[in-house]
Amino acid sequence: MKSMFVPCLLVLGAGLFASEEPTWPPKGTECGESVLAFYDEGPNFANVMQVYPEHAKYVAELLKQGKAAAAGRMKEGNKALIIVRTKDMAEAQAWVNQDPFVQKGVVKASFMAWGHCWAPGTPAPDFVASAGK
After folding, report:
1. What is the number of structural domains in the chain?
2. 114 contact partners, CB below 8 Å, separation of at least 6
3. DSSP-H helix ranges across 46-106
4. Which domain holds residue 71?
5. Terminal Cα distance for the chain, rounded
6. Mean pLDDT for all residues in the chain
7. Contact 120, 26 (CB under 8 A)
8. How do residues 37-76 score in pLDDT, each as one tens digit?
9. Alpha carbon of 112 to those of 22, 46, 87, 92: distances in Å?
10. DSSP classification of residue 79
11. Which of 19, 92, 93, 117 could lock onto 84 through a cystine, CB 3.0 to 4.6 A?
12. Residue 51 lies in a domain
């Protein structure tokens, strides 16, 4: 049993050091980085309709200024997502934390860095090329 184990390790180990091209990102893809801002119910969610007009105006401005690529409510639950057009986490947090929903506790925002690639032949959204502003 031992005698078969050592040659198998040598064969497997040789594959680890083979000079192959990296497979990520796949050739022909357009890649970039953005920040995802997830909204979930905050302690003052009951005030959602009172604060909504301010929130809608603020998010529309983020979209107009190009700071957000997309924003919208999830179909299930009281959740939402904003794709922020920057790879700088502190910048994304600063923009999102100015949202009246966040400031007034209607929602809690959490953030995640997002590295994304688009399939060859698929037109990548404009935020892919401009992410990292």
Report:
1. 1
2. 33, 34, 35, 36, 83
3. 48-65, 89-96, 100-103
4. 33-130
5. 58
6. 83
7. yes
8. 999 999 999 999 999 999 999 999 999 999 999 999 999 9
9. 25, 26, 10, 10
10. -
11. 92
12. yes
Structure tokens at 59: 């998010």
Joined together, the tokens standing for residue 81 give 């997502």
Q: How many CB atoms neighbour CB 130 within 10 A? A: 14
β-strands 107-118, 30-41 pairing: antiparallel
State both tokens at 108: 């809690």
pLDDT band at 30 (very low <50, low <70, confident <90, very high): confident
Q: Does residue 33 register a pLDDT over 70?
A: yes
In a domain, 4, yes or no: no
Name the most confidently modeled range: 18-27, 65-74, 115-124. 65-74
Q: Tokens at residue 52, please?
A: 């909504």
The phi, psi pair for 48, rounded to 5°, reads -55, -45
CA angle 117, 121, 125 (to 5 degrees): 50
Domain presence at residue 7: no
In which band, very low, low, confident or very high, does the pLDDT at 78 lie, cut at 50, 70 and 90?
very high
Domain membership flag for residue 8: no
Tokens of 49: 């309709």
* CATH code of the domain in which 91 resides: 3.30.70.1060
